[in-house]
Backbone:
């Protein structure tokens, strides 16, 4: 599903449109317990786990890099997002993608990578926020702040619920994220559970209750049924 580039972040996204900007500082999370749990409570997941094997999702402590990845992936196709992400990597090489390195380049350079005006504006907002709060990501990563992360991220203009949820999955390793507004999740749920139409948020929420506290893993396997997922060692 596409959205106007000038629109604020939509609640309907597709995570497959996001692509890794950096694979450095990877923290591999074990998923065997969650896989066994899901396979035991839901035959659909038993089938998906047997089909795709162990979950390959990993988290990255390069928080700025992950956030850039998710901003790139907002509101555009998988192919376009991966192309833009590759150009961003090429732009900053041979260094890592850090706020300081990214800020060295002009907005014209960002535009040349394919970043739209709203996304350039959001990224500028992120840089300004980090300049004012240099310890922002450190505070986000504090387990004591877990319940406040979403609200803290959404104080940055251009970052909405979807991006905050993706940060929970790909940066902070929250095991129970269930992004109701994600288009890829909605379509995969429809297909895997053989529904006649895309389920509404209330249906998705109700059906997911037995899968707590492993709904991130459930999300991953549903995404996997549709193909590419960031930070999952998949081509």
Residues:
């Amino acid at each position: 599903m596409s959205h106007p580039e000038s629109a604020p972040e939509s609640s309907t996204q597709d995570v497959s449109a996001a692509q890794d900007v950096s694979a450095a500082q990877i923290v591999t999370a074990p998923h065997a317990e969650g896989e066994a749990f899901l396979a035991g409570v839901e035959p659909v997941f038993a089938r998906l786990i047997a089909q795709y094997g162990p979950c390959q999702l990993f988290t990255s402590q390069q928080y700025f890099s992950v956030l850039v990845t998710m901003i790139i992936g907002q509101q555009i196709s998988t192919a376009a997002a991966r192309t833009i992400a590759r150009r961003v990597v090429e732009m900053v090489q041979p260094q890592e993608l850090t706020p300081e390195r990214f800020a060295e380049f002009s907005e014209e350079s960002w535009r040349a990578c394919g970043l739209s005006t709203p996304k350039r504006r959001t990224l500028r907002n992120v840089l300004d926020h980090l300049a004012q709060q240099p310890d922002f990501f450190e505070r986000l990563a504090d387990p004591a702040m877990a319940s406040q992360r979403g609200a803290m991220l959404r104080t940055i203009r251009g970052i909405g619920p979807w991006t905050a949820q993706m940060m929970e999955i790909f940066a902070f390793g929250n095991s129970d994220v269930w992004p109701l507004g994600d288009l890829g999740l909605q379509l995969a749920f429809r297909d895997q559970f053989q529904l006649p139409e895309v389920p509404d948020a209330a249906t998705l929420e109700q059906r997911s209750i037995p899968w707590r506290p492993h709904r991130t893993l459930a999300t991953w396997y549903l995404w996997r049924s549709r193909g590419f997922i960031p930070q999952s060692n998949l081509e």
